[in-house]
């Protein structure tokens, strides 16, 4: 990582230390003040009726959550998947 951001740059060390202390994002089951503030900010920018924010760690988690939400919303259980697409 040092080749990407330099070696012992004081500003970068401070930012990384501050973020480690605040635990910005652990996993979707836990939130921290910065995550709550981000969610509130995002919601304030959305049209009325869109009032939820849901943060996940990976694309796979996001896809799984989207499929589960679609199943709950539609009441249907089948999905179509495309291989090698």
Keywords:
85 residues; mainly alpha; extended; Aminotrans_3; pyridoxal phosphate binding; transaminase activity; pyruvate; PyrdxlP-dep_Trfase
User: Structural class per helix/strand content?
Assistant: mainly alpha
Q: What is the count of distinct domains? A: 1
DSSP strand content: under 5%
How far is the first residue's CA from the last residue's CA? 33 Å
Overall outline: extended
Helicity range of the residues? Answer: 40-55%
SSE layout and pairing:
Blueprint: H1 2-5, H2 10-22, H3 33-45, H4 59-74
Describe this structure as you would to a colleague.
This protein has 85 residues and is an all-alpha fold. The protein has one domain (2-74). It contains four helices and no strands. The longest helix is centred in the C-terminal third of the chain and has 16 residues, at 59-74. 0% of the residues are buried. The model has no long low-confidence stretch (mean pLDDT 85). InterPro entries: Aminotrans_3, PyrdxlP-dep_Trfase, PyrdxlP-dep_Trfase_major. This is 2,2-dialkylglycine decarboxylase (Pyruvate).
């Amino acid at each position: 990582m040092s080749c990407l951001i330099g070696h012992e740059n004081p500003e970068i060390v401070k930012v990384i230390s501050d973020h480690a202390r605040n635990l910005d994002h652990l996993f979707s089951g836990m939130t921290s003040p910065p995550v709550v503030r981000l969610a509130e900010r995002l919601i304030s920018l959305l049209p009325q009726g869109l009032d939820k924010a849901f943060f996940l760690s990976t694309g796979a988690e996001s896809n799984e959550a989207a499929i589960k939400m679609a199943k709950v919303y539609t009441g249907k259980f089948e999905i179509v998947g495309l291989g090698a697409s």
